[in-house]
């Protein structure tokens, strides 16, 4: 006996066949699966899909792009895209701004932090320490993407201007095709 959901799915399949969306062979195969009670093919969600064969998140998976440097924690070889860098920087700044806001709102009129503010500051400090290595590794991979040595990341050590110069470099698109540091991550 066919349940109501299978009957509705069969009607949808028949309509798709009549409209020419699916072929008669596809209709017959799907109908057999429905009648035999075989499970439907799993439908992949675009946010969890990986780009075909690259190991990179799908184009729409912004959280995946932001977390990718954490997955490649201390990987200083290879190349990284601008999207990976800027999504990571955006995510880090949003999290740090939220923690700082929590800490500042839990301050009394004398400037003393409450318990929640102290926890937020502690998490903020641990987060800065934890994000330091992935950030440096990401900088090195971004310079590799531009066919530059990873030692260019040391420009950050120049007082006042170093960070601005490095951010300027991060705006530059990487080399197309393979370079000395590996294959093109966008290919």
Describe the secondary-structure layout.
Layout: H1 4-19, H2 24-36, H3 62-71, H4 82-105, H5 115-145, H6 162-171
Helix pairs in contact: 1-2, 3-4, 4-5
Briefly note the structural class of the backbone: mainly alpha
Strand portion, in percent?
A: under 5%
Query: What is the overall silhouette?
Result: flat
How many individual β-strands? 0
Write structural notes for this entry.
This protein has 187 residues and is mainly α. It has two domains: 4-36; 62-171. The chain has helices at residues 4-19, 24-36, 62-71, 82-105, 115-145, 162-171. The protein is flat, with a radius of gyration of 25 Å. The model is unreliable at 41-49 (pLDDT under 50). The chain crosses the membrane at residues 85-104, 116-139, 151-172.
Give the key terms.
187 residues; DUF805; 6 helices; mainly alpha; SHOCT
Q: Short description, anyone?
A:
This protein has 187 residues and is mainly alpha-helical.
């Amino acid at each position: 006996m066919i349940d109501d959901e299978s009957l509705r799915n069969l009607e949808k399949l028949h309509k798709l066949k009549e409209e020419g969306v699916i072929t008669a062979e596809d209709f017959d195969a799907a109908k057999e699966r429905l009648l035999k009670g075989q499970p439907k093919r799993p439908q992949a969600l675009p946010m969890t899909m990986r780009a075909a064969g690259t190991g990179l998140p799908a184009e729409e998976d912004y959280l995946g792009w932001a977390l990718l440097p954490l997955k490649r924690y201390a990987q200083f070889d290879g190349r990284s895209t601008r999207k990976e860098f800027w999504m990571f920087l955006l995510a880090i700044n949003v999290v740090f701004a939220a923690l700082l806001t929590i800490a500042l709102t839990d301050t009394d009129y004398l400037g003393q932090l409450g318990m929640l503010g102290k926890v937020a500051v502690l998490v903020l400090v641990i987060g800065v320490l934890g994000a330091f290595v992935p950030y440096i590794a990401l900088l090195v991979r971004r310079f590799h993407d531009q066919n530059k040595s990873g030692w260019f990341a040391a420009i950050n050590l120049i007082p006042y201007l170093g960070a601005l110069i490095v951010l300027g470099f991060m705006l530059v698109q990487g080399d197309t095709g393979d370079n000395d540091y590996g294959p093109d991550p966008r290919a």
